[in-house]
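Protein modeling request. Please complete all fields; requests missing the sequence field cannot be processed.
Requester role: graduate student
Desired output: 3D structure, token encoding
Chains: 1
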Amino acid sequence: MQSNYFPQYDLASRIQHTKFDNGIGRGIPSARMDRVESPEGQNFKQVFSGLVENLNTEMNAPDNLLKDVMSGNKNVDIHDVMTAMSKSEISVSVATQLVGKVINAYDRISQISV
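Delivered output (114 residues):
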């Protein structure tokens, strides 16, 4: 029995390459390395205001669809109303959890002593 046995694997051939690291070994830097993300983007206030607007739209959708069904619109049926109601319930649940997480994060940040 050999005590100094080390298995010899050809690891380079076993690595699964993706489109992000297709230049490795050819002198082209990988897209995964030295990635610089652009600082431009929406700030926290813009993201939350967009979420609130989407939540408001989701909340009003069942009412609008129900009005259409009651007025006799043939393009909308009760199944659409029920689907919209389910989507609005899920949206409220997600929004409630998100607000709870943000408040929890704010509390933790405020407890940090400088």
